[in-house]
Design goal:
Layout (H helix, E strand, L loop, with lengths): L2 H35 L3 H23 L7 H20 L3 H6 L3
Helix pairs in contact: 1-2, 2-3
C-alpha cells in the first residue's frame, strides 16, 4: 500500500470514529431523555438497541479493515430502521421526527 492509500485509510478511520462518537452521544442523550420524560419502554428499547447495534457494527468493521468504508451506510440504515420501527410500534411524535435530523 502506497503513502496516498495509507493517508486515505487513516482519514476514513478518523471520520468513522467521529461518526461513531457523534451517533453514540446522540443516542445516549436520546435514551436518557426518553427515560427522564417517561416515554414508552418500546421506544427506549428501539433507540437503546440502535445504540448497541452501532457499537457492535463499529467494532466488527474496525476488526475487518477491508470493510471499514461501509460503516457510514450501516449508520444510516440503523437510524432509519430504529426510527421506522419506533413510528410503527409506538406512533409518531415530535421527538421521533427530530431524531431523523440529529
Amino acid at each position: 500500500m502506497d503513502f496516498i492509500e495509507q493517508l486515505k485509510m487513516e482519514e476514513l478511520r478518523k471520520k468513522n470514529f467521529f461518526l461513531f462518537l457523534i451517533y453514540t452521544f446522540s443516542a445516549v442523550t436520546g435514551v436518557v431523555g426518553l427515560i427522564l420524560i417517561g416515554e414508552k419502554v418500546e421506544k427506549i428499547a428501539f433507540y437503546g438497541g440502535s445504540l448497541v447495534l452501532n457499537a457492535l457494527v463499529y467494532m466488527a468493521l474496525k476488526k475487518m479493515k477491508k470493510y471499514e468504508h461501509i460503516y457510514p451506510y450501516f449508520i444510516i440504515f440503523i437510524l432509519f430502521s430504529a426510527t421506522l420501527g419506533s413510528l410503527f410500534t409506538t406512533g409518531g411524535s415530535l421527538g421521533t421526527i427530530a431524531s431523523l435530523f440529529v
